[in-house]
Design a protein that fits this description.
The protein is built from no helices and 43 strands. The strands form 11 sheets. It has a 5-stranded antiparallel beta sheet with strand order 1-2-25-24-23, with no helix packed on it. It has a 5-stranded antiparallel beta sheet with strand order 26-33-28-31-30, with no helix packed on it. A 5-stranded antiparallel beta sheet has the order 34-43-37-40-39, with no helix packed on it.
Length: 521
């Protein structure tokens, strides 16, 4: 359930200007103005909160009787309503409004473990308990979510970890075999979220795979194949973007948040955000328009806020070697967007590279016969293919990726560019360039003659992807990475250097270019 706690008036200050970029663009800073404290406070530690979708009502689940406190929002004042006619039977763990604001569900200690109320104006009346009760209630933070149409209610509980009810009028009936989940989550379900269309249900939970995703057909919930890359630790929060394109899982263990792109029934992990949450991602949530993503976590600053961009980069490798490298079209690409591709291939001067039709070479650099790195651009048409294939003169290991940018000059997008070949080290450096127009977008592209991962990017330069070939020893592979950085004023950029992980370095090549905005004079 995407719950919003309005503590005050929040203003988002975007930390960096963008032309466009990937899903996770910038970290934002938030300023909060505290509202007057309600005259009647909850009677114990607050465990969960939920606004009704129209923001009229705010419900708090808490430690001490009455275990749930409900306020009505009038301007900036929150007035406590009369307690419900029947109270939860124990400590309130979680609370959630249905999307139309008619129903309010509270999970709590002691049987029946879930209490459901129906709202009539400002009165909340307890409904009859569901026909089959959960087998127990998890502690504070257990997942609880209504589907968008209010038909289904899913909640985390003691084993079997997930209970799903269907609402018919004011009656909630537990779905059981064959309609209930065919495969249950592997542990306590702390994050429960429906996609807005009610087709997908995602559960973040303890124990591998840490995320379990179901597809609903009628009243039947069927487990989908696990994502290609799993969260790195126990899942504690889950949220779909409003259009159902993205699924975010907050979890223990860095990167603390894992973001998937959904294509049909397949969920593919995207590149990690350029700045990670400071600790365990406990509560991810999108704004209703899908523009912002907030992740609550355990360590200061306790919340990290991202802006969601329109285009997400794609990347690939050709495994242990081939005569081709195929990369999918960037996600969200539209006509007149400008694509930048960075391709790294073994063989250096001994390997010819043939780009796909319509792609224009910006620069190719070679480290003798060891490594070649080439950068290309292409303006998107209204009929782009789903993927692009680069062809090599012999079978070689290769890796690369494509980024997309909006608002760029589609005729002459490359304002200025440069590149250099670097000796063996654990860094990739691109030379300085000098821009003569304002509001350019710097794009770094680097390749290294080893299979590795990126350790760090310099401040201001946000990593968009990394890709490495496989097979054989690491020293026979390639690694490609790219990042971007807005440059508001013309002038020298200085060099850009990234650092890789591991104990050994290799020869590398770094390219840096500036994209010219469409309105440049």
């Amino acid at each position: 359930m995407q719950r919003i706690v309005k503590y005050g008036v929040m203003f988002l200050i975007i930390a960096a200007w963008i032309v466009s970029g990937g899903l996770i663009i910038q970290q934002a800073e938030a300023a909060f103005t505290k509202l007057p404290t309600p005259a009647d406070l909850p009677t114990g530690n607050g465990h969960s909160s939920s606004f009704s979708p129209d923001q009229t009502y705010l419900a708090i689940a808490h430690q001490v009787s009455p275990y749930v406190t409900i306020y009505k929002h009038k301007g900036d004042i929150f007035e406590k309503l009369d307690d419900p006619d029947v109270l939860p039977t124990g400590i309130g763990h979680n609370v959630s409004f249905s999307m139309e604001g008619t129903y309010l569900a509270v999970t709590h200690a002691f049987s029946p473990y879930v209490t459901i109320y129906k709202r009539s104006v400002d009165t909340f009346t307890k409904l009859n308990d569901p026909d089959i009760l959960p087998k127990g209630a998890l502690t504070a933070g257990a997942g609880l979510s209504f589907s968008a149409d209010g038909t289904y209610l899913a909640l985390g509980s003691d084993g079997p970890y997930l209970t799903i009810y269907k609402r018919n009028g004011d009656t909630f009936t537990k779905l059981v075999s064959p309609n209930g989940p065919d495969v249950l989550p592997a542990g306590d379900a702390y994050g429960v979220t429906f996609s807005a269309d009610g087709v997908y249900l995602a559960i973040a939970h303890n124990n591998s795979p840490c995320v379990t995703i179901y597809k609903r057909s009628g009243d039947t919930f069927t487990k989908l194949d696990d994502p290609d890359v799993l969260p790195t630790g126990n899942g504690f929060g889950a949220s779909f973007s409003p259009d159902g394109t993205y699924l975010v899982i907050g979890h223990y263990v860095t990167p603390y948040v894992t973001i998937y792109y959904r294509s049909g029934d397949t969920f593919t992990k995207l590149t990690n955000p350029n700045i990670l949450p400071a600790d365990c991602g406990c509560g991810p949530s999108f704004t209703a328009d899908g523009i912002y993503l907030a992740v609550a976590h355990d360590v200061s600053p306790f919340v990290t806020i991202y802006k969601v961009g329109p285009i997400h980069p794609t990347f690939a490798n050709n495994g242990s070697g081939a005569t081709t490298l195929t990369i999918n079209k960037p996600v969200g690409l539209e006509e007149n967007d400008v694509m930048i591709a960075n391709i790294s291939v073994r063989g250096g001067t001994g390997t010819a590279i043939t780009p796909p039709s319509g792609w224009n070479l910006v620069r190719r650099s070679n480290s003798k016969t060891t490594l070649a790195h080439a950068t290309y651009w292409k303006a998107a048409t209204g009929s782009e293919s789903g993927s692009y294939t680069w062809t090599f003169s012999s079978s070689q290991k290769a890796s690369g990726g494509i980024q997309g940018y909006r608002g760029i000059d589609t005729t002459n997008p490359i304002h200025v560019e440069n590149g250099q070949v670097n000796g063996s080290s654990k860094t990739i450096t691109a030379p300085s360039i000098t821009t003569t127009v304002d509001n350019t977008m710097l794009v770094f592209g680097g390749g290294m003659a080893t299979g590795t991962t990126v350790s760090s990017y310099p401040d201001g330069l946000a990593m968009r992807f990394e890709a490495a070939s496989t097979g054989g020893g690491a020293t026979t592979r390639t690694t490609t990475t790219s990042g971007d950085e807005p440059k508001e004023t013309a002038g020298s950029t200085g060099t850009r250097t990234i650092t890789i992980t591991g104990k050994k370095g290799a020869v590398s090549i770094g390219h840096l270019l500036a994209l010219k905005p469409a309105n440049a004079k």
